[in-house]
């Protein structure tokens, strides 16, 4: 039987490591990273810090752990964290901030839009015995549940300014920060300068098998390293993973192809009756598809899966599709024509 390779549009996390990564993993110099003796991890952390324009960086097993550590370092129990009501840290991290840091999340609609600065000003409360102390604002760029939308550096700067005047820290969930920088055609530092700490993922569009980095001041990273150990994220010969990460960082420019494929997919699908896509919001590698025809979003997902096309619902009547290294432009054309046939 011939095994048919599925076209997997569920996420860019499904990307497989390249042969170059596997070769680098096999030959990586390694040591015990908990003792600070893994040269490959050290190299990756140094490189990541330089790329982000920060003093120091820490290799962590996942983006979620990086975000949770940032919340732990920047806050104390009982304090308040302001974030978007659709932010990954609020929506997809299983209540981690309540469980681990013991903080109260204040989810705000529209924080990650051009109106964000105005919304933030209205949200910030004066010092009062009744109110929790706000200590942290979390931003997200690109904004996953926003449809991979990009927050412009001017908006980030304004948000950062407001926070700093009030002595609030800013953590940037930059899981896909390179997608944002590529889309804006700017150096990633123009975005990361507007935060006290940033997390980015190697394991999404950059295609590494495992890992994320957290960057900030040396003091912040020292505290983060301790929390990483507490959470069980201290890894030993982690250079095997970091080696793939170093290769991943050379492929940042390739993300352009994912963005072009996303636009091609969105444009093609939006011409099909029963489907609507806000093309203005297709800014990176994520597209949000509204299904309003005779079949529901979940039925369409099932029918596509029979045709070896994988995607997932993203809310009622909504499907998310993500382009990445392992989806070609021919695959995109196949998805468009198959969807057309299914909806006819
Ligand atoms: C994927 C993602 C994360 C978490 O990364 P994991 O490695 O899956 O834990 C955090 N924030 C955003 C915006 C993401 O898309």
Please explain how this structure is put together.
This protein has 344 residues and is α/β, with parallel strands linked by helices. The protein folds into two domains: 7-14 and 253-343, Aspartate Aminotransferase, domain 1, CATH 3.90.1150; 19-250, Type I PLP-dependent aspartate aminotransferase-like (Major domain) (Aspartate Aminotransferase, domain 2, 3-Layer(aba) Sandwich), CATH 3.40.640.10. The chain has 14 helices and 13 strands. The protein has helices at 19-27, 39-52, 63-74, 88-91, 96-101, 116-123, 153-165, 177-184, 189-192, 218-230, 239-248, 255-270, 297-306, 329-343, and strands at residues 7-8, 56-60, 80-84, 104-108, 134-140, 169-173, 197-201, 212-216, 275-276, 286-291, 309-310, 312-315, 318-322. The strands form three sheets. Strands 2-8-7-6-5-3-4 form a seven-stranded mixed sheet, sandwiched between helices. Strands 9-10-13-12 form a four-stranded antiparallel sheet. The protein has a two-stranded parallel ribbon with strand order 1-11. It is globular. The model has no long low-confidence stretch (mean pLDDT 97). Residues 62-64, 67, 88, 140, 144, 173, 175, 201, 203, 212 line the site of pyridoxal-5'-phosphate (PLP).
